[in-house]
Amino acid sequence: MKNGNYLRKLSKMVVARKYVLAKHFEGAPKESDLKIVEEELPPLKDGEFLAEAVYLSVDPYMRAYAYKLPLGETMVGTQIAKITESKNKNFPAGKYVVGKFDWRTHTISTGDTGTNQGPASHPPYIVPDFGELPLSYALGVLGMPGTTAYFGFLEICQPKPGETVIITAAAGAVGSIVGQIAKIKGCRVIGVTGSNEKGQYLMDNFGFDGYVNYKCDDIEQQLEKVAPEGIDCYFDNVAGEISSKIIKYMKMFGRISVCGSISSYNTNVNTPPKVSCVQLHMLRKQLRMQGFQNYLFYNRSFEGINQNLQWVKEGKLKYTETVTQGFENMTKAFIEMLEGKNIGKAIVKV
Ligand SMILES: NC(=O)C1=CN([C@@H]2O[C@H](COP(=O)(O)OP(=O)(O)OC[C@H]3O[C@@H](n4cnc5c(N)ncnc54)[C@H](OP(=O)(O)O)[C@@H]3O)[C@@H](O)[C@H]2O)C=CC1
Ligand SMILES: CCCCCC(=O)/C=C/[C@H]1[C@H](O)CC(=O)[C@@H]1CCCCCCC(=O)O
Where does the Enoyl reductase (ER) domain start and stop, copy by copy (predicted)? Predict the structure, then answer.
């Protein structure tokens, strides 16, 4: 190869950085469980595009899912990326795309599937027009957490005006949206959080009517105080003993939407934590409990995104993000989200 051609090839060469699993998580994830490696990307083939990460999401499911990844595999995840080069007319250069491109800075995609063997997810899509709203909302209220809140609450809890709704991990990405949708639907809303500061934040910023701090040891007294007549709908992000306590306070024919189980993600999947039995309460009160995964409503995703967008534009749905700067801080952001240091959606800006 002539020297000039070689240099031209070099100048077009893209080196991606990505996080791979160095050690399977034991308990809470540690910085040393993940490591950054570099990967030279090949030139684009017809039908492919190159996308450069702008915002990356850190989500609880990554902790729960990681045991399925072989060591050395790239961490799973979704990001918003800028298309910098394209040989695919559906994904033109200059546009922004939401894709399950994992924890990586640069990705070559055909637009069909994610790069990894991770969980079921949307194929990449061009970020819709949100008007003046920030692009990053596509990872939160106008993306997966937003549709999880919208469908998981409305479809499974079937809330009615005047009913009392309780939500665990209420100050987080999904919980803070569920609470506000419940207010829009005319419900009385209680949030369960890990600190009084977060609880007060929910009341001051998202219109919650009360809160319970699950880290205090008087949870039952707190529940009696905030929901003296009982609870109609429970949106459960956490599971574990707090859920057993809440279920005891539910009213006849109450509905429980099981969205997450974050209190058990740091435990080995084969040895789940033991909690107080709830079946007798469920039987006596004739409660209905349903677990769901966001992709159950996959075909209706844009119905949820468009409704949330309208509510955000109308000022009815407020949205908060906890943004960590720098791709090199992905693991830190992930650990801090699992520790509850976030309010609203935890994301990383490259
Ligand atoms: N079913 C589905 O399709 C989906 C489910 N989910 C689930 O929803 C839940 C919330 O996710 P998301 O909104 O993204 O995350 P969040 O933004 O809510 O962040 C996680 C929060 O969980 C709380 N938390 C952490 N550990 C515990 C614990 N041991 N007990 C109680 N609370 C804890 C922390 O808040 P605090 O300070 O209050 O402790 C933390 O801020 C997760 O369980 C997730 O897996 C999310 C998306 C889709
Ligand atoms: C069991 C862990 C999942 C807990 C619920 C959750 O957070 C789901 C999130 C999904 C979201 O729609 C985007 C995804 O890709 C997530 C699915 C993750 C599936 C993990 C399945 C793990 C297992 O079966 O053990």
Answer: 30-348
171 close to ligand 1 (CB < 6 Angstrom):
yes
Ligand 1 atom index nearest CA of 292? 1
Q: Is the pLDDT of residue 211 over 60?
A: yes
Distance 100 CA to ligand 2 centre (A): 13
* pTM of the predicted structure, to 2 decimals: 0.95
Q: How far is the CA of 214 from the centre of ligand 2 (A)?
A: 24
The reply to whether ligand 1 has any atom less than 6 angstroms from the CB of 78 is no
The first and second tokens of residue 79, run together, are 């990001």
Atom of ligand 1 nearest to the CA of 266: 29
Domain boundaries, the chain: 15-127+323-349, 144-292
Decide whether any atom of ligand 1 lies within 6 Å of the 293 Cβ: yes
Top-level CATH class of 144-292? alpha beta
Architecture (CATH level 2) of domain 15-127+323-349: Alpha-Beta Complex (3.90)
177: Cβ below 6 Å to ligand 1?
no
Interface pTM (ipTM) of the complex?
A: 0.97
Q: How far is the CA of 340 from the centre of ligand 1 (A)?
A: 8
